[in-house]
TrEMBL record:
Cellular component terms (Gene Ontology): cytosol
Family in the record: Belongs to the carbohydrate kinase PfkB family.
Organism: Streptomyces qaidamensis
Keywords from the UniProt entry: ATP-binding, Kinase, Nucleotide-binding, Transferase
Location of the Carbohydrate kinase PfkB domain: 16-287
Protein name (database record): 1-phosphofructokinase
Length: 315
């Protein structure tokens, strides 16, 4: 079973708009609502692959009830932590030329009792988890060291941890040696405090994260592909993609693909790349089913193209 922990879930609202004109009333041409938050999306992708998953998340207010309903409709097993504050709503504005602007709310503030209940729920649900995926930003009330504490507790209980977060929460958790961390290019650059211009720069940054404590680094480099750097070596994976529809949740789909395939080595990287490529070709944060995957379009190599200049460099 793959357990996911999303301390700051969201009701994801996507509005399709012709274009963004600041200061104007913009009429949306379409809208959709998805249960969101990075760990929630990982659970949706794991469930879409037919594997068992449980999603732990605080839920509160009317948006929280809607998230619970939407997850129920999708057949996702949830271990909810009831909280007094309302679950946030995150807005995505999708322009017809493919540009997507996202507004992520801070989320409710968790009280001391709610924080404890969240940790206790994770502990209770961890028993038959092969992996615990801890994902996304932290809501107010959780210190940047919260993920570090979670990783330490989960390791003590014998579980493996995948961590997808950024900034101080990522840096603080590294010292507890998470089994894999999954930064995107921006998060990787932020963690090492340097720009990334080439694939080789990303490999160096990933190695630095390993020196800081990560056992393995699965880095998503957007249109450029993905990197896996672990004690067994480094691999680079990429896929042919016909047309990008939405990259919301593509990183979460990749992480799910990686964990479903064992969470280690080039086969798991190939599965991560296949899941990420399938997700960007689906609308909103729709997660791919096995029928959406195209493994033949994926290439994984141990000959990392270090000199390749990134299409989307991070300055
Ligand atoms: O604010 P965070 O926690 O960093 O990210 C939240 C979020 O942007 O991540 C998911 C996509 O990865 C969305 O479902 C959700 O809205």
């Amino acid at each position: 079973m793959i357990l996911t922990v999303t301390p700051n879930p969201s009701l994801d609202r996507t509005y399709e708009v012709p274009s963004l004109d600041r200061g104007e009333v913009i009429r949306a041409t379409g809208e959709r609502m998805d249960p969101g938050g990075k760990g929630v999306n990982v659970s949706r992708a794991v469930a879409a692959a037919g594997q068992r998953t449980v999603a732990v998340l605080p839920l509160g207010g009317a948006p929280g009830a809607l998230v619970a309903d939407l997850l129920d409709q999708q057949g996702i097993e949830v271990a909810p932590v009831p909280v007094a504050g309302a679950t946030r709503s995150n807005i995505a504005l999708a322009e017809s030329d493919g540009v997507l602007t996202k507004i992520n709310a801070p989320g409710p503030e968790l009280s001391g009792a709610e924080r404890e209940l969240l940790l206790e729920t994770v502990r209770r649900q961890s028993r038959d988890a092969s992996w615990i995926a801890c994902c996304g930003s932290l809501p107010r009330g959780l210190a940047p060291s919260w993920y570090a504490e979670l990783v330490a507790r989960a390791h003590a209980a014998g579980a493996r941890i995948a961590l997808d977060t950024s900034g101080p929460a990522l840096l603080a958790a590294l010292r507890e040696r998470p089994d894999v961390v999954k930064p995107n290019a921006e998060e990787l650059a932020g963690a090492v405090g340097r720009p990334l211009a080439t694939v080789g720069d990303a490999v160096k940054a990933a190695e630095e994260l390993r020196e800081m404590g990560a056992r393995a680094v699965l880095a998503s480099l957007g249109a450029d592909g993905q990197l896996l750097v672990s004690d067994a070596g480094a691999w680079f994976g990429s896929a042919r993609v016909a047309a990008v529809r939405s990259n919301v949740g593509a990183g979460d789909s990749s992480l799910a693909g990686f964990l479903i395939a064992g969470g280690n080595g080039p086969e798991a990287l190939a599965s991560a790349v296949a899941h990420g490529a399938a997700a960007v070709q689906l609308p909103g944060s729709v997660m791919p089913t096995p029928g959406d995957l195209d493994p033949a379009a994926v290439t994984v190599t141990a000959e990392v193209p270090a000199d390749r200049v990134l299409k989307e460099p991070v300055s």
